[in-house]
Design goal:
The protein has 294 residues and is mainly beta. It has 1 helix and 14 strands; from the N terminus they run H-E-E-E-E-E-E-E-E-E-E-E-E-E-E.
Length: 294
């Protein structure tokens, strides 16, 4: 958590210090809420049951050229959703089940020195609001992954509403899992690990269909070169899983039907062999209310 504090405090200091320079911040906050509900009377024939699903999504951006030689870009993604369902026989509503959950903050500082590539440094925090993986204990903001990276960045496209940037460099990650139950001692403890290696990130954003649709894509590749728990895994089937390439590819299509009505399609492809030997896929299609705060 000290790493998180340092990242947040440093970003806040840069934001405050930047107020002395001319030029406004490029700020954007898009939030949308989707809701699906159905209900049936007690004498309804067919065995249907009531259900309620809701999802909240928010994407925020704060970007500015702080100095002729220093640019900062800060992004925050917040997703959370639940599904409530009713028992077909008793009509009793079950405990809600989480359908979407993400807290993702990243800050990137790029030194614009006028060369072919720009040096950069970045920090990222990834977690979730509610960890429901343990039926005996729900944990808030768990697990947490901190990532610090440094290297070179290249702006391939920079237009008013279209941008494509890439980053390549070294990365360090710290993984924190709170109050994990040890089945041997029946006690809970915080489990930590860290790894480091090479990191590649591609960020792309563009309008489509006369700017009524926006497409955002983020590809992150991480190749670990060392892992703090490698010695403990020797002799096990999964002793080399940490050496596999980690892939996180997020794609979002947002279509504005009207000022307050939108369609959002989110597709994510994940590969982390330490979690699953095959790739993982997530797709969310939602129609609901949206509001651009800034």
């Amino acid at each position: 958590m000290r790493v998180l504090f340092v990242v947040m405090a440093t970003t806040l200091a840069v934001v405050v210090a930047s107020s002395v320079f001319a030029g406004p911040w490029a700020l954007s906050v898009d939030a949308n809420l989707t809701l699906t509900q159905n209900a049936y009377s007690d004498n309804w024939a067919g065995g249907e049951a009531g259900a309620l699903s809701w999802t909240f999504n928010s994407n925020s951006l704060a970007e500015k050229q702080l100095h002729p030689k220093l640019h900062t870009k800060n992004t925050l993604k917040l997703f959370f959703g639940q599904t409530h369902s009713q028992d077909r026989e008793t009509k009793i509503w079950a405990k809600p089940v989480k359908s979407s959950d993400l807290v993702d903050f990243e800050t990137v500082w790029r030194f614009t020195l006028g060369g072919f590539v720009d040096p950069f440094g970045s920090g990222r925090v990834e977690t979730q609001f509610l960890d429901a993986s343990d039926p005996a204990k729900e944990r808030m903001f768990n697990p947490v992954t901190f990532t610090e990276s440094f290297g070179v960045a290249k702006v391939l496209i920079k237009q008013e509403k279209r941008e494509w940037t890439t980053r390549l460099g070294g990365g360090l990650r710290q993984h924190l899992n709170k109050e994990v139950l040890d089945i041997l001692t029946n006690k809970r403890q915080t489990v930590t690990s860290n790894d480091g290696g090479l990191l590649f990130v591609s960020d792309f954003h563009t309008p489509m269909a006369r700017e009524r649709i926006t497409f955002t894509s983020k590809l992150s590749l991480f190749q670990a070169l060392f892992y703090s728990e490698a010695d403990k895994l020797k002799g096990q089937v999964n002793e080399d899983y940490w050496k596999s390439l980690d892939v996180n590819w997020e794609n979002t299509f947002t279509a504005s039907i009207s000022k307050f009505l939108m369609v959002n399609l989110y597709v994510q492809l994940l590969y982390d062999r330490e979690i699953a030997r095959g790739g993982r896929f997530k797709q969310t299609l939602s129609l609901g209310l949206t509001y651009k705060l800034i």
